[in-house]
Design goal:
By secondary structure, this protein is an alpha+beta fold. The protein is built from 3 helices and 5 strands, in the order αβββββαα. The longest helix is centred in the first third of the chain and has 50 residues.
Length: about 210
């Protein structure tokens, strides 16, 4: 009887310990998930507002969105979110999430801001696995290379200027690294082409009237 009582007490103790541990893990996971989501949202907002500053628009970029799927041009096989910037009630800029699948070390996740006239508002690289000291220069905190896209226009879908200089285009490559900047340039060009093909859907019927080149 004493042995049975001891075993029962141990079993109850282990059960209580397991329940308490599981509860603590669950609470920790929930808290961690919320913190991660909050941090991701803050990082996302910072990148978006680097392309379109808050003081230049009248809406909240994180709240004014449109869904799209563009596996061939933008690499998004699942529904993705585009953000829209408005002034005077009209959409002036759309920021598209873009995946460059041909980076040196895999996918390069980017956002590309495109104005209503199809000029580039800005490009930012959000995540990548490129070589430190070489390919990572596509990050704004490592170099100002991505600023070369600001204000650029594409003349037709086969504009030869939209390539790195090694391929006969206008964009610099990095010393010892051509694959990464080539991937970013090509992905940005695809984003512009997608925008031009889907301009009304992205901007809406109240978009600014412009003549595209």
């Amino acid at each position: 009887m004493e042995m049975f009582s001891a075993v029962r007490s141990s079993t109850v103790g282990l059960a209580v310990f397991a329940v308490v541990t599981a509860a603590l893990i669950a609470v920790t996971q929930v808290g961690t998930k919320e913190r991660i989501e909050r941090n991701e949202r803050e990082a996302q907002a910072r990148a978006l507002y680097e392309i379109v500053p808050r003081d230049q628009i009248e809406n909240d970029l994180l709240e004014d969105t449109v869904k799209f799927v563009a596996p061939e041009l933008l690499g998004n096989r699942e529904p993705a979110t585009a953000w829209r910037a408005r002034r005077d009630g009209k959409v002036q800029t759309v920021i598209l999430p873009v995946i460059a699948p041909d980076g040196y070390s895999g996918n390069i996740q980017m956002i590309v801001g495109i104005n209503a006239d199809s000029s580039v508002a800005g490009v930012r690289v959000l995540a990548h696995k490129e070589t430190p000291g070489l390919g990572d220069k596509v990050e704004i905190k490592k170099s100002d290379w991505v600023l070369a896209f600001d204000g650029r226009m594409m003349n037709g879908s086969r504009d030869k200027a939209w390539a790195v200089k090694k391929d006969g285009g206008d964009f610099d490559q990095f010393t010892g690294a051509t694959i990464t900047p080539r991937a970013v340039v090509n992905a940005t060009a695809r984003a512009i082409r997608y925008f031009r093909m889907n301009r009304i859907a992205l901007l809406g019927s109240d978009s600014v009237e412009v003549s595209l080149q």
